[in-house]
Amino acid sequence: MGKERLILALDLDDQVAATRMAAELHPYFEVAKVGLELFGAAGPGVVYALRDMGYRVFIDLKLHDIPNTVERASRVLGSLGPAFVTYHGAGGEEMLRAGIAGLFDGASSGGESLPLALAVTVLTSEGSANEALMAERIGVAVKAGCQGYVAGASDLKAAHGLAPALVSVVPGIREAGSTRDDQRRTATAREALDLGADYLVVGRTVTAAPDPIKAAAALLQAISG
Ligand code: C5P
């Protein structure tokens, strides 16, 4: 068990800085996540740049709009050849279905492999995930045909019960002694994996560390073996 589970959140506002960090940290991560900040700063070109470096790319724009808009935006994103794309579960079943249709169509038309469409359930920056809301969002993700979901480590037990076949992605990773920043439902990488997480989103624990390479090596060590 190791780096294939780790997703590097490149929350930077500059493509040069982001790709430099991605290059330094490639020994520790196979997936690079492009969120609103980096996509806003650098646009689709950064997805190609990261793919050229050998990364699988996670496009994390948490789409939430009317179904037609989400479908059309997803077609564009699918053509970029990402491995994962996120949708906000609050958008509902029809929106998620439209997004997945557009995403798969864009990927197939571009000759790319089909990405995993992930539904964001309840953000890990919220103090607690209401059980009923979590169940509703997971249920909608399953019905719409999502391949996975994003949830906090503490939500995994319930989520696995409701959607055993879906891939789980867990952000809010904080090692002992580090600050939580704006995250509330946090866990260490080891705890999240022990609770059954398939992938971990790792951001500031590594990217804001005084020595990101050292922090990444320590994280990988903590989850190996
Ligand atoms: O580890 P750190 O808190 O820096 O990671 C935050 C990253 O995880 C951000 O890119 C954020 O968008 C993402 N994320 C999150 N909670 C979710 C989904 C994604 O924090 N539910």
What does this structure look like?
The protein has 225 residues and is α/β, with parallel strands linked by helices. It has a single domain, classed as TIM Barrel. The chain is built from ten helices and eight strands. The chain has an eight-stranded parallel beta barrel with strand order 1-2-3-4-5-6-7-8, surrounded by six helices. Helix 1 links the parallel strand 1 and strand 2. Helix 4 packs parallel to helix 5 and helix 5 crosses helix 6. The model has no long low-confidence stretch (mean pLDDT 95).
Kindly report the oligomeric state of this protein.
Answer: single chain
Helix content class: 40-55%
Order of helices and strands: EHEHHEHEHEHEHEHEHH
End-to-end span in angstroms? 7 Å
CATH class: Alpha Beta
- What is the 3D form? globular
Give a short overview.
The protein has 225 residues and is of the alpha/beta class. It contains 10 helices and 8 strands. The protein has one domain: TIM Barrel.
Task: Using brief descriptors, characterize the structure shown.
225 residues, alpha/beta, TIM Barrel, 17% strand, binds cytidine-5'-monophosphate
